[in-house]
Write a sequence for this structure.
């Protein structure tokens, strides 16, 4: 049975209720936290993140917190505070991180929530080597998220939890700075520019979606879960909306080996 963790481009109370309605046998848990800006994912930013984590735990779901990709100084401190609060409330089971400094500090602070090296770490190293894995293990990681099924067996042999990024958009993003604050020199209260893409460029040759503001957009393709000969401990999937979840789970069920 595949243990599936679901992340959405934007979480709302209705989307959360829909995803949580699936039994644990189909959806084991949820992934909360936008790689670039919490106001992309939640109407009320970090407040929704905490509330949704608490609601997911009340129905027995696994909760994974995806930390921001770019941990500049103020965001670093805020992210660390969120982790400490999630730990205090006991509403988080895994942290997906790709910042060495954050992982090291969590280990130094004896954070009890296990940490997994996120696929966003490929911004720093675009392949998994034994030297990299050994280094990450030395600073406290207990799992690695991969997008190449062939790496699963090697990671598993190192007694690390394997998170296979089974379905996600293929994107190239650049310029993570908020347009409102950097160009118009004013604070963005409601995320007007974040709610609609200012520019979207389709690179047909590379089959990727490019965005100028770091907003992760889903490719307009039918959901298809990456299969692996060595079953991972977890599948992470990222969808634009929960409407596509049913189709994906149906295909997963069809590909499951029949019971004798």
């Amino acid at each position: 049975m595949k243990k599936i963790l679901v992340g959405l481009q934007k979480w709302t109370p209705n989307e959360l209720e829909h995803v949580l309605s699936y039994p644990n046998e189909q959806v084991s848990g949820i992934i909360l936290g936008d790689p670039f800006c919490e106001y992309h994912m939640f109407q009320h930013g970090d407040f929704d993140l905490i509330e949704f984590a608490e609601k997911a735990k009340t129905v027995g779901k696994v909760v994974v917190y995806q930390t921001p990709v770019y941990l500049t100084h103020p965001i670093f401190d805020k992210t660390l505070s969120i982790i400490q609060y999630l730990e205090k409330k006991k509403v988080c089971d895994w942290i997906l991180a790709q910042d060495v400094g954050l992982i090291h500090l969590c280990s130094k602070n004896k954070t009890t929530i296990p940490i997994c090296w996120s696929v966003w770490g490929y911004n720093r190293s675009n392949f998994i080597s034994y030297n990299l894995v050994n280094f990450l293990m030395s600073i406290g990681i207990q799992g690695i998220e991969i997008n190449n099924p062939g790496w699963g067996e090697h990671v598993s042999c190192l007694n690390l939890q394997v998170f296979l990024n089974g379905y996600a958009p293929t994107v190239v993003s650049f310029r993570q700075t908020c347009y409102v604050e950097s160009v118009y020199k004013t604070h963005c209260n409601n995320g007007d520019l974040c709610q609609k893409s200012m520019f979207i460029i389709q690179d047909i040759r590379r089959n990727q979606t490019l965005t100028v503001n770091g907003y992760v957009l889903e490719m307009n393709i039918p959901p298809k879960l990456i299969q692996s000969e060595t079953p991972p401990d977890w599948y992470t999937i990222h969808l634009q909306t929960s409407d596509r979840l049913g189709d994906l789970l149906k295909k997963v069920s069809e590909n499951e080996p029949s019971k004798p």
